[in-house]
Design goal:
The complex is a heterodimer of chains A (197) and B (261). With 197 residues, chain A is mainly alpha-helical. Chain A is built from eight helices and no strands. The longest helix of chain A has 30 residues. The chains are: A mainly alpha (197), B mainly alpha (261). The interface between A and B is large, with 70 and 82 residues.
Chain lengths: 197, 261
Amino acid sequence: MTTSTTSRRGELSSTALALIPIAIAINVALGHLVQSVLKLPIYLDSIGTVLVGVLLGPLAGAITGLLANVIWGLTLAPSALPFAAVAAVIGLIAGYARQYGALHAWWKMALAGVITGIVAAAISAPIATYVFGGVTGGGTDVLVAMFQNLGASVLGASFMQGAVSDPLDKTITYLIVWMIIYALPKRLLARFGATEH
Amino acid sequence: MQRTGLFIERAGFLQRLNPLTKITGALLLIGATFLLPAPLTGAALLGGVLLPLALASLVVRRFLDTLLKTLLPVLISLALVQGLFFPTADPATVAVGPLLFRRAGIQFALDIGSRLLVVAGAPLLVFQTTHPGTLVQALIQRGMPRSVGYMLLTALQLIPAVTERAARVAEAQRARGLETEGNILQRIRGLLPLISPLIVGALIEAEERAMALEARAFNAPGPKTWVRDIPDPPAERMARIVMLTALGALIVWRVATLALG
């Protein structure tokens, strides 16, 4: 399945080594483009992570997510660091989604996006609550305030905010990745071991 | 070349230290903010440790600038959302103009806010005073996989290049009549023609990089030599042991006080 993730000694293959840094840069560059240039109300900062997960498997996906947030924290926003674990899980799920045949149909990719979004919301809620007090300084804070006003605890409101925002964001991410993979030349896909679809 | 990362080239106090010592120090500070009572600890660590260190390392202006720029939106949001909507049974309120802030909410915002300044500030100071190359080399010499170091440094260098390419793709598609302004639906529809050239190009480049890595035997087994030597005097090794012991003691103390009620 994920033939080219690791070499014989269990280390990352050259393909993974070359693709992961580029995927990290795509996460940061696209996240910036979507949020600041196009000013859309979604994040789209995990396209690279999902792409690597789907192409090279769970391990490579998790590494991409983890390092992407470490780098993001290192360069632009130190507040991205605490969420590195969430990003790693997003990559992990993308890898397993591929193994369960998510690439075979667009609606399977959409389903994988919804599942990833819910899991991501569940893991980020405690981090958002205990490190950031439930807010991130972005537009989604309005949702947190609303849920708290309806009687939710800080943790509950953080989760509900994530449960509204994340599945939408991740579904769009998975669908974009699906379309990109279908647009890729076959020769390139063979290099990444994704030939079965 | 475009600047990447936070590193500022200065000859101050922290710049002379071994990266491992600085990371250990940051860990101790972050641990302390969660283990000792807020908001006093956070304020004391920021004013008594981080700021003097930034001053001694000649980066205090950039340190405060970056810290506030990243955290100010969070702090304002924290004060408003938790000050006004914090779920509490305590009816005590503080009136500020027309707004009624809840006392428990203000307390919560102060606790989290002071902690946040240290949690973000400590790593920020490490990165502002450590060249990424030195940092990664020190970590690899301590057993971090070489591949992780390679990926971290490459990604750091690639971010400005990919950002620039994204802007160029956006311009090229706009020249062909793509709408990047207008309502949300139009902007989402304009997204795919931007993203797919960017990613397909990046994947082709990844293939070339992979071949270059193989040609240079990056994955070859055996020991490697280092061009740079990172000094690690005994005093710093001692300091690291002391800081880790302090962190361990804090954790034990905290667990003990929690267990004993």
